[in-house]
Write a structure and sequence with these properties.
Elements: E1 10-15, H1 24-27, E2 41-48, E3 55-58, E4 68-69, E5 74-75, H2 78-87, H3 93-106
Antiparallel strand pairs: 1-2, 2-3, 4-5
Length: about 130
């Protein structure tokens, strides 16, 4: 049986049944915010971006293509998809942790050593 990308999805529920709700104008300045009107329950599946661990809300009515990395076979957020398309790089969070751990082990006690700076600058990949 083939694996589904939605397998293992989390669940997001925003319940505004007893709330004045939020209009799109209320949350327009907040990246990734979801506007939910008064009296509405908003429910969606959620996956984590494999490259940065941000939540990716799986909107069923999304019209543009969802970010997907074929190298790690996972959904990625829009920001990481832009980087992946531009550079072709697949740098999942697990790989970033491995690089950081290798550096920490190799240069333990030598924090000022010039070689302690990684080849892959971790903050540039986010």
């Amino acid at each position: 049986m083939a694996r589904s990308l939605r397998q293992g999805a989390g669940f997001l529920q925003i319940d505004h049944r007893n709330s004045p709700g939020l209009s799109p104008a209320d949350v327009a300045h907040l990246p990734g915010a979801v506007a939910v009107a008064a009296g509405v329950v908003h429910e969606r599946d959620v996956k984590q971006c494999s490259h940065c661990q941000r939540d990716v809300v799986l909107e069923p009515l999304r019209t543009r293509e969802r970010g997907y990395c074929p190298k790690c076979d996972s959904y990625v957020c829009d920001g990481c998809e832009a980087i992946r398309v531009k550079t072709g790089a697949c740098v999942p969070m697990v790989k970033r942790f491995d690089v950081a751990l290798e550096i920490a082990e190799k240069f333990s006690g030598q924090l000022d050593h010039p070689a302690a700076v990684p080849d892959i600058v971790l903050t540039d990949l986010v």
